[in-house]
Protein: Rhamnulokinase
Amino acid sequence: MRLAAVDLGASSGRVMAGTVGPGVLSVAEVHRFPNGGVRVAHAGGSTLHWDILGLYRELLTGVQAANQAGALDGVGIDSWAVDYGLLDASGALLGNPVNYRDARTAGVAERVLETVPARELFDVTGLQQLPFNTLYQLLAERDLSAAETMLLIPDLLNYWLTGVRGAERTNASTTQLYDVRSREWAVGLAERVGIPPRLLPPLRDPGTVVGTLLPDLAAELALPELPVVAVGSHDTASAVVGVPAEPGTNFAYISSGTWSLVGLELDEPELGDAALAANFTNEGGVDGTIRFLRNVTGLWVLSESLRTWEAQGTPVSLPAVLAQAASVRPLAAVVDIDAPVFLPPGDMPSRIRQACAETGQRVPETPGELVRCVLDSLALAYRRTVRQASELTGRPVDVVHVVGGGVRNELLCQLTADACGVPVLAGPVEAAALGNVLVQARALGADLPDLAAMRALIRATHELRRYEPSGREADWARAAARIDPKVVA
Structure:
């Protein structure tokens, strides 16, 4: 079975051609394209949009390329969360979707919390407070009177492919308009805050066949009328499907890239006061699971440091600087990698040195010292989040699975094992695309009855690397205390 996995990120998108069969699972990139916000001026200022038509064009180009390499059996789309397009009663798009980084939601969350307290909002939706959640974006719209339906980004693209409207549950669960207990739209909440319930389309499970390519579209592109499958359309949901955990293991996962998503897979949401205070989130996963996780700043700080050095005329090779970092004294200096100062783009090396100086630590001078500080600090953030997730749920963690681009950073994988005090299993890099094609394959008849079967196929076809912890627990506990003296090892 050959399948096209469309994987859209905030900075780039790609189409992967996947092959699935008995004992067979592989993906290969056939088309990659840039993505990003487009700022448009208007009388009231400016708005940051997505070029949704450009993304649609590139999607079609990629699917055509995948089909030319071998006849396709299906297509599935995953993307980032929370953003959407609004359709009128005829099904026409009312405007380019707004980018979640746009400032239009400033102050909206505070107004909502005056009507619905944070405790009540969390009890219904299970989501962490983020100012760009879909609920706040809809309330920031100038006028909803012409809008008939809201479609999240993958659902909008599926609609243009098939003519069928709907909302896939894993992405719907990120909107703050979804009841995490009943797994249906929180219609009462929507009405209470002033969002018309008519905007909320019918929900569908991941693994549902949405429809087939519209005949005119298929003819125009010289494609068969392919089935389009609603996969775990939030990219993290697809990535967690791609975590090759053994059945019965107490595992945590880290989907590691520019951002890192760190958490546990649960059967039911964790909605206690401690989870609310710790700013964890409960998002829907494939097969009714819950992704109990928190966002951690990922390899963003490292990539911005490399970009800064290049802009300053002293470019640094990533392999070379990682080799230097491996020989630097461990835990010489650490910072709170999740601190707000490290979120915006800019001169990360200067910010890191300043943070070290302010906490009375040895200031890293060479690129190798600075990168070691970044990686040690990131491993500490993983340690903190994995332990918090374990404490909040009462579930021990025996192994940490790392998937995504961070798998390639062998030093970070080893430091993660050292910091967390449990083995790390690294791989696969292409977890999101693999999760996408596996859910498609099952929907189209492959013998993959559950997550265990999907993950077994990944283990059988992809090499994983195991990293054992060094046993230096006291060193990591002391380093954690340097960032937060209240930390108890």
Observations:
- The chain has a mean pLDDT of 96.
- The chain has 18 helices and 21 strands.
- The radius of gyration is 22 Å.
- The CA atoms of residues 322 and 401 lie 22 Å apart.
